[in-house]
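quick one if you have a minute, typing this from the bus. below you get a single protein, a line of residues and a line of whole numbers that encode the local backbone shape. could you go over both lines and see whether the tokens make sense for that sequence. anything you notice is useful, everything is just below.
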Amino acid sequence: MDSLILVGGTFTSVALAAQLVSVLSVLLRFQKCNVRSTEDLPPVSILRPLCGVENFIEETLETTFKLDYPHYEIVFCVADEYDPVIPIVEKLMAAHRSIDARLQVGHLNLSVNPKLNNLVKGWHASRHEWVIMADSNVLMPKNYIQCMLSAWRDDTGLVVSPPIGSKPQNVWADLECMFLNTYQARWQCFADNIGLAFAQGKSMLWRRSLLDSAGSIEMLAEDVAEDAAATRIVRGLGLRVRLVSSPFTQPLGYRSASEVWNRQLRWARLRRKTFPWFFVPEILVGALPPVATASAVAMAQGWPIVGTAALLLFIWYAAEACLARYAGWHFSLRSVAICILRDTLLPVLWICAWAGNDFKWRGNLITMAPEVTRAR
């Protein structure tokens, strides 16, 4: 019994320490972008793949035209000539004629990844050495390009930003915020702090010559997800993936429970497929395992079980609340209850990630079987 108490107490202490250390580590990384003089800034191409009309789509796309940057072009990529997002893009281009922007329509059946198939034409049509691939739902601040460039170092092969959820308009969007912000973005920033950052496809800054030296954009078809392939390419070149100092936001609006679950399940299955040894320990992440072991230890020691669990939960989520407040991320009065729901779902999500190889993405059924990574 004593050994079980020791193991349970040790696990609880380590889990709580990891929570607090990761929060503190991320708090210390936030800073303003070190913007260079405009004479020293290279021209940049921004590729924005589009598919359908999403929440806040006009707002997010318009920010691309309002960047405080002297030399950049925008290449919008659409696969279907009848996509309803095209009139929105054409309206924005007409309203901002001073910005070098154009629309590329069509796709190459390169892989099972519809976004990559959509992006290929934009990569080859863009003109500059520095290229940013940014999803349509990324809300770009005026210094967006400077923030991406400022994270680049001599040992860098790719700069990325995880999404930060904002503007949730119902409880399920709140849940997505709690997944994205103080959970996923926190751990991604912590991984960057210790030199283990990995790519995420929301915003990716490349040097064209670097990716071309590895086989160009077509090599991103080597994995189901382009960001997983990007991580392998960069590490294979002996370089690092780096994150921006402060991640960019993604306005959410209304979300359904199924939308949030399916998106999280897709990401979980992709992580399991592409980096399984990093995915395996995820079963132990979140408040549920340490609360269970702390409660067991409290029962064995004759301590109040409810009080012990409540104290642990208070410390756990107070740390997340402090991080969100300091970073300016969404965190409402009901967020603690939403965080508890999120952490209750994490082990279920982990189990479901191992239970299948398929998921739906933009209406496409994707399988993660190795033989269908590239389109035939």
